[in-house]
Structures are given as C-alpha cells and as structure tokens.
Amino acid sequence: MAQCVQSVQEFVQDSFVPMVAVLCSEEAERVTRKNNLNFAELLRPFCRLTSEGHIRDPSNQLQVVKNLRICVNNLVTSPTTTSTSLSPAQRQLLSDVVSSCQPQESAVTNVVMAGDYELNFSVTTPWFEAYRENFLQSMPASDHEFLNHYLACLLVVSSTEAVPVEQFLKLSQEQHRIQHSGEYTNPKWFIPNTLKYYVLLHDMCEGDEQRADVVYEDMKQKYGSQGCYLLKMNSRTFSANVDEQIPDPWSQYLHKNNLHNQFPHNPCTSNEMSSSLEGHPLQLDSSMANLHNLSAVHTDLKKGAKDSNSPACAAGSHGACLTLNDHDYIRQFIQEFTFRGLLPHIEKTIRQLNDQLVSRKGLSRSLFTATKKWFGGGKAPEKSISEPKSTCGLLYPPEAPELQIRKMADLCLLVQHYDLAYSCYHTAKKDFLSDQAMLYAAGALEMAAVSAFLQGGASRPYPAHYMDTAIQTYRDVCKNMVLAERCALLSAEILKSQGKYSEAATLLIKMTSEDSDLRSALLLEQAAHCFINMRNPMVRKFAFHMILSGHRFSKAGQRRHALRCYCQAMQVYKERGWSLAEDHINFTIGRQSFTLRQPEEAVTAFRQILINDSRQTAKQQGAFLREYLYVYKSVLGGNEVSLPQLPLPCIHSSATRVYFGHERRLAEGEKQAATHVSLDQEFDQDLSAMWCHLEEQLVASANGGVVPVNFQPTQCCLNSQTDNLRHPLAVVEEPIIVEVTFRNPLKVSLALSSLSLLWRFTVDGSSSSKEMTEETITNEETSAVGVGNMNKYALRNCDLFSPFRNHMDFLLFTDQQTLDLMVRGKQDLNILGPRLNLTKEDKMSVRHGPDRRLNPIITAPMPLMEVFFLQFPTALLCGEIRKAYVEFCNVSGVALCGLRVVSTHAAFFTFGSQATTPLSPTSAENCSPYKTVATPLQRASEATESLVSADDFRQPSGVIEIPIDGSILQPGQSTQLPLWLRGPDQEGVHEINFLFYYESAEKGLKISHRVLRHTVFICASRSLSIQASACRSSVPPHHCLDEKGSSGTLVFIDVENINTNEGGVREFHIVQVSSSSQHWRLHKYINPNKDKECKLGSRERAKLCFRATRCKPSEATSKAVEKYTFSDLSMGNEQIISSTTPCGDFFFRSSSRISSVSKSQGSVPTENRSSDLTDIAKECSELDLNIIVIWKAYVVEDNKQLILEGQLHVALQTIGKEATSLTAKEVPQEMVLLKFKSDLPPPVILPSAEFCQLIKTNLHYPETCTHPFVQESLCLVPVTLTLSNCSLAQVDVIIDLRHKSSSPESLEVHSSFAWVGQSQYKLQLKPKEVLCLTLQACFLQAGVYNLNTPRVFAKPSEQSIMCETSQQTATPALIVISNA
Amino acid sequence: MNTNMAVCIAVIAKENYPLYIRSVPTQNELKFHYTVHTSLDVVEEKISAVGKALGDQRELYLGLLYPTEDYKMFRKLHNSFTDVMCNPFHNPGDTIQSKAFDGIVSGMMVQTA
C-alpha cells in the first residue's frame, strides 16, 4: 500500500465524524452565494476544531475531545432506498475523481533497490486517496449503523429576511417533515430528537446590523443562547481591495470539482450527463432513470461545479466577500456550535441511551461481564422477530432495542470515547451474532476493530480477525460490496501501519472482483505497493500485480493509470529475457500511449517489440509489425522533415563497406580492364598485406628508395578489418559507394523500397560549418528482405562537389512496407570501432575505438587512370613468350605522371628495354614476339656474339617505370604500350598481381599518389624440360684457333618434351640456343648430323652438344660495368638476337639468372683473397654460364595451326653439375627419421672433389704406330702431356709416371709397356699456364695400350700443409701398336 | 502412463532471467511466464529462509511452493540440468538449448494430444 498524506489515526478518525445537515432559507442562500459558495461549503474549511472540547461519559468521567472534525452537508432529500452497491452516477464520480488525479510530472519518485532491481516509481498514490475519500463520503447511509446519520441540523436564515423568526419556524417544520413524515428514507437521522441549531446570517454590507442584533436577542430568548448564533459575514464589498490577497481555504476542498469542471463533457444538466455517460466504457447500464438518488455529497459537488461554471464568477474565486475577520467569525461559529450545541447534545443522548440500556435487564450484565461466551447460552432471538428479509439474516426495525447499544457505541466513537465504544460494539456484536443478524454483526465487528485500533496504546491488541470476519460477512453473506470495500480499506490501512504488508496485500487482492474494475485496479495497485514495501521487497509480485492493476485500469477506462502501471511493471521485466511478458507489456504500453495521443511513446514501445529477439509466432509478429507501422504512420503524419528512426531491418553496421571510386568497367570491347578492387571481393588479410607490400615498393621507388614515414597504404574499400582510425580520403567528383548489410530478425518478410543514403557535408575552413542535408542518392529497386536472412545493398552516392575537408555522416532512408502499410523513416549508420583492450580501464569496461569509415575527407581532384589489356592470354606454356598490349587512360581532368608498376611475378612480363614505337596490335598479328634477322647458312654452327650491359635491363627492386611518351599523361589522353609476357616456369595456375602507381603532375596534394590493382590468373602448362651439364673437353687447346686459354668446355643440353597435351601441341622445334655469361660463351654447335633441325614430338628427347669457350679477357675483365656476352647459335635460318627485347629482358628477369648473379657476386671478394682454398677450387670449376633455349611450338587449336614461341633458361654454375630449367622445382623434403644415435663421425677429410679439377691434362700421341718388333724389340713412342692450370692461383704439380703396383691385374697389363726417361716431375704452374711435357713410352709387343696412366697430383702453391690431390683422370687414351 | 504432469517447466538463472521455459498449452504461454516470474518472489523467500536455518545448503529442493509439486520430478529435472551444465560447450548463463533436456521436460509435461 502506498504512503498516504494522512496518518492512519487521522484517516480512520476522519472516516467517522458527526454529520450535520444544513437547511438554508433562500435569502440566506443568496447571501452565501455572493462568495460563490453555499453554506455547507462555506463552513467546510473550518470544520476541524483546533481547540479541545470536553464531554462527560455516563459514569461522569471527563473525556477530552481532540482534533474533532464535523461534516456539514446540505440537506438533500431523495426518495429511494439504500442499495448495496454504488449507483452509476457515484461510480462515474469516483471514476472522474481518479482520472482527474494524475501523478505530476515532477512528482517525487523514489528509487527502490531490491536485489539487482532498481525501481523508480512514485511512493504516493494521490488518486487512491482521492478515491478513498470520495468513496467514504459517498457511502450510502445504512440502517445497520448510525455513523453517517445526521446528528444535528443547522437552520440558516438571513437577517435581511422580513421576519427571520418566521423563517426559522418554517425551516424547523421542514426539517421535522423530512425526518418524520416517512416520505424520505435517504437523509437518515441519528435519533428522532435531532438537534436544531438556529443561525442568523448577517450580511455586513447589506442589512442593518442593529436589526440583526435585535433579532438575535429575540432568538436567544426563544431558543436559548446555546441553540442559536448570529454569524456576521461578507464584510468586504465586491470591488474594494481587489488586489488584497486573502487566502482561499476552499480551494483544496473544492478543487476536485473544478478539475471535474474542466472535463469537456462536464455534466451541467442531467441530460447532458446521461449522454456523456453513455459513451463511457465503464458504464454498462446507461439508463439514468434514478438520477435523483444522488448522494448529498455528490449534489454538493455538482452545485459547486455548476456555480463555478457561471460566468459571473471566475472559477477559484471563493469567498470573495469575506475578510480574514469573517474567516475568524466562521471559525468561532463552528466552535461555538460544536462545544455549546453539538457536544452537549451528544453527551445528553449518550446518557439517555445508557440509562435506557442500564434499565434493561441483562444488558448491564452483558456490559460489565466480559466472560460471557460468544455463542453460549443458546439465547433464542425471541424479541421482535421481524421477517428476515434478506440473506444478511435478521433485520431490526429502526427503534429496536438491539440497535440502541449500537447507536450508543457509534456516538461514543464519534466523540472519541473509544474505550466505551469498543465495549459497546463488543456487546452489540455478541447480541447480533446470537440473533444471526449478520449485517449488524459485521458492522459491529468492523467498528469494534476500529475503536480497538483508535484506542491505541497497549490496552488492547488490534483484532485483525474481526475485520476479516466483517469483510467476509459483508461480501459473502450480505453481498454488500460497498461495505466490504470500506472495511477492507480501513483494515488494509491499519495493517499497513502495523507493518503487516503481506496481510494487507492478501486482503486487498481478495477484494478484487468482477463487479468493479476501478476498485479492483486501485486495490491491486495498492497490493503491489504492499509487496514492494515489505521488509524483503517482492519485486516480481509487485510487477505482476501492477500489470493486473494496469489491466483493470484499462478495463475501467483509466488509460493514463493503466499506462503508468504497465510502465512501472516494465522496469522489472525489462531486459531479463522474459520476452513474451516484455512483448505483452510493450504492446499494451504502445496501445495505451497511442490512444492517449502520445504516439512517440507508442512508437518507442512497439519498436522494442520488434527489436527484441522475438519468440512470438510469425502471425503475432505480423500483427505487431502492422500495429507499429500504423502507429508510426500516424506519428509521422505530414511531417517529412525530420524522419524518425526505424527499428527494422537491423543494420549490421560493422559489416558496412565503403568503396571509394567508380565501379570498374570489366571490359570494353576486346579490352580487358584492370580488375582493381571491387565490392565483390571479400577482404583477405594476406592479400591486403601483399598489396601493401607492393605499394611500399612503389612508393620507395618513387621517393628515391626510401619509404616516407607518413606512408599509409591506399585503401579503396573499407570494411571492418581495415584500419579505420584515419579519416579516409575521397576525391572530389568521385563516387563513394556504401554497402550496408541488413538483417530481418522477424519471421515475416519486410519489403524495402526507395532506399537512399543521407549525408551531411561540413566545410572545414570557413568559420561557420555549413551543413546541408541533401538527398542526392540513387534509389535501389524495391526489394524484399526475406525472413531471417541477410541482404546486402550497395548504395551509390553521387559526386561531391566541394574540394574542402569535410565530414560526412551517413544515414539511411528507408521505406518500409507491409502489404498496404508503408512508412518512411531513417536509420542511423553508426559504426562502432573495435573494442579497445590496451589499458586497464579498457579491459574493465566496454570501450570502442573510433571508426571513421564513414567520415571521409574530400580532397582536391586527383588523376584517375584506367588500365586496359589487349590480347592478354589466360593460358601459356611454361616459358612461352607472348606479346600483349596495355593501354593507360587518364580519365580525370588532371595530368598524371610517375607511372610505375610492380608485380608479384617480376619475371612474368616486360615492357621492353628500348623505346620501341608501339605497334598497333592488329598490324603485328601473327608476328613473332621475337625480333629476328636472317642468318647466312654457312655460319649456322658458329655463334654470333653481342656484348650487353646488364644495367640496360636491370630495374631496381622489381619496380618498373613504365616508359610512356613524355612521362606525363594528359587529361583524357591514353597511350598503348606493348607488353611481353612469359609463361611461368612452373606449371599450374598462377595468380599474378600488378600494382600500377601514378601521381598527380601537381605536387603537394593531400593524396600523394594513387594505385590501381590488377590480378590475372595464368594457367601454365608444361612445355620442355632442359637439363644441361658441362664437362672439360679433352681437346688440346691449340687445336682451337681462337682459343687462347686452356678452357674448352663441352656443354650438353638434354631437351625433353614433357608436354602431355598431345592433341594440342604437335611438336617443339629448338630454334636457337643462346648463352649469356660474364665469362663464358657458347662457341660452337657440335651437330652429329648436320642440317637437321631438332624436332621433338610428345615425350621425345634430344641431346645437343656445344662447345663453350671463355670470353676474351678484355671483355671479361672490364669489371666496372657488369657486361654480359650473349652468343646466339641459331639452328634454323633465322637468328633471334637474344640480347634485345624481349629475350634479354626475360633472361635478366628470370629467377635462374638472379640466383647466379647472387652467386657470382658472392665470389667476387674471394678472388682477391685467393688464399681461401675452397674458393680457388670453386673458381676453377665455376662456369656461370646461362643457356637460353628458344623454341617454337606447333599448336593446333580450333583446326588452326599456331606457332608459339618461348624460351627457357638454364644456369650452369659448375662443371660436372647438372642444371635443369625447372629451377624452383623443389621436391618437398622427405621426412627424416628421427635418430637417437648420433651419426658416426665423418671419415677423415678426403680431398674434396673440387680439387680434382685444378689441372686439366691431355695426352697427345699418334693413334697408331707400326713397329717391326722382329728387328727391334723395343718400340719408343713420344707422348706429349699437356698440363693446363684451370685456376687463378699458382699450383704445384707432381706427375708420377710409375705404374701403380697395387693391383695384380694392372701389373699384368702394364708389364707390357713402360714410361722411360724421367718418371717423376715436380712443376709449378702459374695461373692459367699451359705446359707441355714430352714423355717416352716404351712398348714390348704389339697390342692396344692405355696410355693414360700418369698420375697428376696438384695443390695450390701457398697451401703447404695440404697434400697434393690426385687430379681427375681423363678417359682412356688408347694407342694401337702393330707389328710391322 | 506418465504420472508427472506439469504444464510449465522453467529453469531460471539467479539473475532472474529464464534459461529455459516451456509450457504445454502454448496458447497460454504468456500467463505461465507471468506466473513463473511472479513465483520467483516465493522462491527467494524460501531461499532466504533456508539460508538462515541450515548451514549445509546441499539440499536444493526448496519444498512445496504449491501443493502440487513432486520431488521426483525435481530430481529428474535437476539431474538433467546438471548434465546440461556439465557440457563443456555450454556457456553458463546462456539459455538452455539441449535436446536431451527438452526430452526430459517433454516427458514431464501434460500430454495434450
């Protein structure tokens, strides 16, 4: 139960006060009417007595009467009988009272913390108190009790009357007639002998004061000084002292009527009222036949209402003719009346009654013996049994003796003699019970409990069960809900004061019934308050009963109260997962708000239903949505300016993607546009890092090799994973595309149409930031967001016009539509940044970083380039060379320059090294990508040579500057360049990424550069596999004419056709073999069968043999510029100059060359430090020869023969080591078994194989020798041993000619021939020195001999410790000795 | 024949939100939700009473909230709930989405068909 303004004692006491009727003469009525009041109203503010009165009880004890209030009412007669329920008019009145009393906006709310609930609600319920007050006042007087029967009657006559005494007589007779004629049952009178008090009213402004005094003297004579009074008032003239402020004590008593007044349908006449009632939802029976039985109170109220309506007096100006002195007069009058008239009258009546009772036998016994049993004695109801008419049991006639004790009890109660009252009630109760007069018994029980409570102190505990019994009896036996309600209200209030909230709540809840929604609502609300006020607040019960109350309020037509109840309950249910309940409450709140013309609140409530993860069925959701849209639409009305927020569909704001720039054209005719970035691509972290790396390379190359500190990679498409901390830069007049992801959480589909993007543009720099919200967005088609699925829409924004820094906030306009309902609204697009997790505060709370995806800065115009590719293949053979064209278009209004490109596959393409005039692709069709010259046939086996500097081809760090004319591309200009492509060496699908870089010709812009991405997929299929090996040739150097040194090397190239596509590729022709090296060159093609081209069908293999020689020292030693010697050996009739584009370009780009470069560079310093042994050895065997094999493939495609050309590179690094074209062919390393035992220590260092190559040996001798063994037994043959130092260091050589004696079999052979002469030599060879030794071999008989027995040991001269290493033994050198 | 006949079974988190709630006459779901929610006050009252009386709180069955309860039913439900909580993939505090639990609950419900 809510807190009340009054204390409980006050409330209970004020519920039962002496009733005084007023009868006015017409003249007196007129006098009081001047104050806009009738006489009863005039007295009302002064009805509480401030001073103490005294009364003597029957035992002559003095009883103090404190703080007494009397109730003065105009006497109104009505013929009807009492009823057990309120009349419709009374109900209407109560309903109006409740609805007019609403909580103020600023009303004090208190916060109740219960568990983890925090509830905010008003603790006071003034509407309930107003209802209670009015209810108690409008209680119909009942026969079973006397409390609201009139004790006295004031007869008021004005002094202006011609004969006031006569008027008094008339009024007195009138009163007597009303009381005793039996005509009227309704104003009930306490005792037959009602106190009449004669009041002479004197208007100070009108009448003659002396005359009044005279009349008063007369009255005193006639009625005694205690039975009459002269009341002087209206001292103030109307117009005088208007501005004087007089307190208006009436307002608080009458303001409810005024409020009542403000209702537009204020009933002024009964007809009007009935019509207004008909429309009231509470009223079931609109028949207003018994309008006359308005209670006294109601009539008063109505009169007040009527009066305040009158135009003469403004509402609220009560007592306009009264001065403060007049107020005092009235107060004195009341006091005089009470103390001199009323109290003595009551005292006298009590005495009389007491005497009667005492005189009655057995009564004294019941009065003074409390030991009598409740139902004991079996006392039969012998006396005056009138027919028990009703269910309440017995009904007593008004003057029945049983009622006298009750009458006395009531009187005692009224004058606050609670002790006596209690004993009287108690006695009466027993009598009534024994008579089975249930209504009377209930009344006695109720009042016994009340008087016991009011008695206070510890004298008697409050008998709560009396109340319960009384309520039960009233309700169930007597079916008198009004009395039951009064009893419950009293009991609940008393229980509340004793802290028995639970009992109070139970009581209140029991009192709810179907017959009155308003009462049920109010009582349920009070019950809810009881629950929350308990020591352990029952929050959920509070909420539940609030909902029940709200339901009843709404049934009673009290929409505001209903809304308030639901809102309070909502605090408990909110956001706790009780979604069904939440939806229900929200729905009700929405409906009530809407009918109360609070559509904003309604929209908010409905919104909640839709936003929550609904557990409702699809049908229910549909209904909710429809209701929402309807309300929304009505809120919107014609107001199109500020669109409200739409709750649906849900925007997945973090998934928003923002794309800066135009959408790419994919192709234009046969031109294929650069792929760049599009919204179709998903974000890939690795890819993004790759692009960033490429861009870094480009920027570094553009800035002289250094990446600027403020470098930030260009981001074209922003999403949740990109770095959104910076404001993105957008270029003026370029579109911004925003992709928004929607989700429909409902089970019904939503149709969206006319989506557009709202934006705001703020100009930075101008003092006042100009904001314009403009709709310049293209619309999407109408599209339905299906049930529960995600849809993405790209919204295209138009160009922006101002090149200033500005911020944009995007909003979304959507129209929602469901069947026939269509609304228009917006949704904010706010992107929350990533959650911060750095500081402790960040970790403790949920904080988000900024996300500036949607706040771009618009910058000055930038160039915009488009790149197109022509004749760009999708499939290539490995190593195939193809010529394509690339076109650069400047589509902006700004010149661009600094065009660069970088790729993930640098070896894939080249623009050519020389400035070549771009041929139109059509004219060059079917042309070989190579540049050829016809070769004279006679020189077919000889190489043509050319010397090229590597710098002509080399590009630093893989970035290629694109050679365009004038290096500036003017606006609108486009240029076409040839582009050579070479199929990757690895078969399979290759993703090749290009990043084009360009910058504005103007410098110092906010955006330093722009980039364009392109990704191609190339499918490479196998072509040829080339294996090359080299070995020292055994041909003596001097056999070669142009050979100066000792270095003749044979190069063997194994070519295999590994293409498996037999249908497509017919055959491969080896067209040309070229070499490129700093030190070596291919010299000659050793072709066993001349004039035959090398053709390879599928899976065929061929071996080609070449001789390589060292380059001329002058060429080789010019180290300042790294120069490469290219030598071409053409096998056909055309020679391809390998040192030019594209062959040379690809050679320098190929990965095989790069690796050899790194090798050769690594060996450069060791040349100076020749002390390092291994290096010398390496140096010696190092070849560093790159071989380029150029082939033609005959391919049949669509019944057309095509000739494809290509080149493969092999890097021969060392002699004796095989190299293949598939350089990067890395076999995944086989799994090595885990070994727990350590390996055996490696064997003693064997002279490594490298040292076997220090010295090259050749034997020169006649192949056959005929010798007459018959004449001469010994045959001497001269043999020349040529030693050539292959290394660049001095070498000590030991030559041992003695046969090895180790093997017996060799002994056998060798015994037949012997070296004669010096058999061991020790020599020193200078670098690259060639030395000849002449030896003598001695043969004993004819036969075939192997002369290759000399063992050559060598070691570098400086290396003293190491033993000499046996040099590689050459192939057998056979000599035939024949007998002549 | 099933002796356990419940119309509505709910598992409520200690923060007062439903982990699981199901009722059989589905048309009256809202009413049951309200009833369950309101009865939490009674539960709270009982818990505080138990807390005062007993040091050992191993007995989780609060007794009769209303005279038509069945202890066996509680045991069954509680065991099943324990199983759900033991699921390593279940995040305590989330609503219960378990087929096994559903099955147990269905078995306790009034057969409407």
From TrEMBL, chain A:
<feature type="domain" description="TPPC8 C-terminal Ig-like">
    <location>
        <begin position="1254"/>
        <end position="1355"/>
    </location>
</feature>
<dbReference type="Pfam" id="PF24542">
    <property type="entry name" value="Ig_TPPC8_C"/>
</dbReference>
<feature type="domain" description="TPPC8 second Ig-like">
    <location>
        <begin position="878"/>
        <end position="1012"/>
    </location>
</feature>
<dbReference type="GO" id="GO:1990072">
    <property type="term" value="C:TRAPPIII protein complex"/>
</dbReference>
<dbReference type="InterPro" id="IPR024420">
    <property type="entry name" value="TRAPP_III_complex_Trs85"/>
</dbReference>
<dbReference type="Pfam" id="PF24545">
    <property type="entry name" value="Ig_TPPC8_1st"/>
</dbReference>
<feature type="domain" description="TPPC8 third Ig-like">
    <location>
        <begin position="1015"/>
        <end position="1210"/>
    </location>
</feature>
<dbReference type="InterPro" id="IPR058540">
    <property type="entry name" value="Ig_TPPC8_3rd"/>
</dbReference>
<feature type="domain" description="TPPC8 first Ig-like">
    <location>
        <begin position="680"/>
        <end position="784"/>
    </location>
</feature>
<dbReference type="Pfam" id="PF24544">
    <property type="entry name" value="Ig_TPPC8_2nd"/>
</dbReference>
<dbReference type="Pfam" id="PF12739">
    <property type="entry name" value="TRAPPC-Trs85"/>
</dbReference>
<dbReference type="InterPro" id="IPR058538">
    <property type="entry name" value="Ig_TPPC8_2nd"/>
</dbReference>
<dbReference type="InterPro" id="IPR011990">
    <property type="entry name" value="TPR-like_helical_dom_sf"/>
</dbReference>
<feature type="domain" description="TPPC8 first Ig-like">
    <location>
        <begin position="820"/>
        <end position="877"/>
    </location>
</feature>
<dbReference type="InterPro" id="IPR057651">
    <property type="entry name" value="Ig_TPPC8_C"/>
</dbReference>
<protein>
    <recommendedName>
        <fullName>Trafficking protein particle complex 8</fullName>
    </recommendedName>
</protein>
<dbReference type="InterPro" id="IPR058541">
    <property type="entry name" value="Ig_TPPC8_1st"/>
</dbReference>
<dbReference type="Pfam" id="PF24546">
    <property type="entry name" value="Ig_TPPC8_3rd"/>
</dbReference>
TrEMBL record, chain B:
<dbReference type="InterPro" id="IPR011012">
    <property type="entry name" value="Longin-like_dom_sf"/>
</dbReference>
<keyword id="KW-0813">Transport</keyword>
<protein>
    <recommendedName>
        <fullName>Trafficking protein particle complex subunit 2-like protein</fullName>
    </recommendedName>
</protein>
<dbReference type="GO" id="GO:0006888">
    <property type="term" value="P:endoplasmic reticulum to Golgi vesicle-mediated transport"/>
</dbReference>
<dbReference type="GO" id="GO:0048471">
    <property type="term" value="C:perinuclear region of cytoplasm"/>
</dbReference>
<keyword id="KW-0931">ER-Golgi transport</keyword>
<dbReference type="InterPro" id="IPR006722">
    <property type="entry name" value="Sedlin"/>
</dbReference>
<dbReference type="Pfam" id="PF04628">
    <property type="entry name" value="Sedlin_N"/>
</dbReference>
<comment type="similarity">
    <text>Belongs to the TRAPP small subunits family. Sedlin subfamily.</text>
</comment>
<dbReference type="InterPro" id="IPR044760">
    <property type="entry name" value="TRAPPC2L"/>
</dbReference>
